[in-house]
Write a structure and sequence with these properties.
495 residues, 8-stranded mixed beta sheet
Length: 495
């Protein structure tokens, strides 16, 4: 009897419970009391490009992301599926590209402070655009499997009933409050496993609002590096210094989330993904298919995840959902277009199996038809190809990328004022608004800010044709067959 194995002992006690009701449930649970449930936390910054100290950004300190990265795997080729807030978050929670899941632009959604009925089918705040009803979202799947789910800062996904979180909190930029809220979420989860989408508002504009309350995170305009696609002028440096200051504040908020997990004793059994929803809040970045709008920081820590690893694997935000489900040993829906990163995270693979390219898209930032400019991109790790589906269309930049009033964006003004001293930066701004070519090809090793279009060069004809073929194949396989945005709108309206 003393040599009987543990699993047989479990069966024996369970059978005793069935036959003899006097044996309590706690007796059975006692056997597995040391086996903690697996949890997941997604730390999602807002509008932060690939700008962390450990990734090479100058004049900015990101001690929490840096330390976090050394505790797990940091990816250098991580790309959002789309460079706008709502569709990016929906791509994460469906594992699908926006043109496929139906959520192809930013949408009007409830605030986290709204009453519970605003998140149901009778919600008075429902956009015409959103995730198709037949698609299972990550929060839906986790809720069905007994998880306690929670979200912070903003909702920004459509329709609201497709994202059924157990709890919500509008905390958005206070490190102290983040630690408190996450700790409360953990307590509320009780014995249930949990999933938290810890949205953090900085470095989304308005920068001044963040820095006014947390001036200690402000950076020195003289110490930062100005990206080559923007003019290096005092006005531009002033705006960028606030952006980098907001990155430092966001890093502190993220650190507070991790600290709460540690203080509550759940850090070791939690998969933590640390990334941003899209790239920099500047023109030719956010709301565009260029690399500065899609390239984001990405690091993962968790059970069995290798430590101190840097991976060059090509990964996408559509990989987050299948990775989470794979980690939790839950079935991955057939609708998912991404791939699990678990084999890379655990060291069993160096690259994502079967992947030679990464893809991304831009459709429209907001509902204004003038903001619609459909583009598709493919990247092989060295060359970056963009196909502008309506190259002759004029493009209206979203307000937060050009307006001083309300958003306090000085970058557009700085670029226009520097048109004679920085003619290239001014030229690519004007091309962004009108005159973009149908095809664009960039050598990311030698031209990371994509200033020289190689699409018309004979030397690169073969590479361009290779990437164009890959893009055509991907579009067919994912149902992205319409070049006309009006047709896309028609088929992706919520019924």
């Amino acid at each position: 009897m003393f040599s009987i194995k543990k699993q047989y002992l479990v069966l024996l006690i369970i059978s005793c419970f069935i036959v003899f009701p006097s044996v309590s449930q706690s007796t059975i649970n006692e056997i597995g009391k040391n086996k903690k449930p697996l949890n997941v936390v997604l730390i999602l910054l807002d509008d932060q490009g690939y700008d962390t100290a450990i990734d090479g950004a100058k004049g900015v300190k990101t001690p929490n992301f840096d330390a976090f990265s050394k505790s797990g795997v940091r990816f250098t080729n991580s790309y959002a599926a789309v460079p706008s807030c709502s569709p990016s978050r929906s791509s994460i929670n469906t594992g699908m590209f926006p043109h496929a899941n139906g959520h192809w632009r930013n949408t009007i959604t409830p605030k986290l402070t709204d009453p519970i009925e605003f998140f149901g089918r009778k919600s008075p705040t429902v956009d015409k655009v959103g995730v198709h009803e037949y698609i299972k979202t990550l929060p839906e799947i986790l809720k069905a499997n007994g998880f306690f789910t929670a979200i912070t800062q903003k909702f920004h996904m459509s329709p609201p009933w497709k994202f059924p979180y157990s709890d919500k909190d509008p905390v958005h930029n206070s490190p102290k409050e983040y630690k408190k809220v996450i700790a409360e979420f953990i307590e509320k989860s009780g014995d249930k496993p949990f999933f938290f989408q810890a949205n953090i508002s900085p470095p989304h504009r308005n920068f001044e609002e963040h820095m006014k309350h947390f001036p200690e995170y402000m950076t020195d305009p003289n110490e930062i590096t100005v990206p080559d696609y923007l003019p290096d002028t005092p006005l531009m440096r002033k705006d960028l210094s606030k952006y980098y200051g907001c990155i430092q504040l966001a890093d502190a908020c993220a650190g507070a989330v991790v600290s709460a997990l540690k203080s509550k004793g759940v850090y070791d059994n939690t998969l933590i993904i640390f990334t941003s929803d899209q790239g920099q809040p500047y023109h030719r970045a956010k709301a565009s298919a260029y690399a500065e709008g899609l390239h984001v920081p990405f690091a993962v820590v968790g059970p069995k995840v290798k430590k101190c690893q840097v991976s060059e694997a090509l990964i996408s935000h559509i990989d987050i959902m299948p990775t989470v489900l794979d980690f939790l040993k839950l079935p991955i829906p057939k609708t998912v277009q991404g791939k699990s990163l678990l084999p890379v995270l655990t060291g069993h693979q160096k690259k994502v199996k079967g992947r030679s390219y990464i893809f991304g898209e831009h459709n429209s930032h907001g509902p204004n038809p003038k903001e619609h400019y459909p583009s598709r991109m493919v990247f092989d790790g060295e060359f970056y190809f963009i196909k502008n589906l309506m190259p002759n269309k004029n493009y209206l930049l979203p307000a937060d990328l050009m307006d001083v009033k309300g958003w306090n964006n000085r970058s557009y003004e700085a670029t226009v004022k520097a048109q004679f001293t920085y003619p290239k930066q001014y030229e690519i701004l004007r091309l962004l608004e009108s005159g973009r070519p149908e095809e664009e090809l960039y050598d990311m090793k030698n031209d990371p800010y994509q200033l020289v279009n190689l699409a018309g060069k004979v030397k690169f004809k073969e590479k361009k044709e290779e990437l164009n073929t890959a893009l055509i194949t991907w579009r067919k396989e994912t149902g992205d067959v319409e070049d006309n945005p009006a047709k896309i709108k028609t088929r992706q309206t919520i019924k």
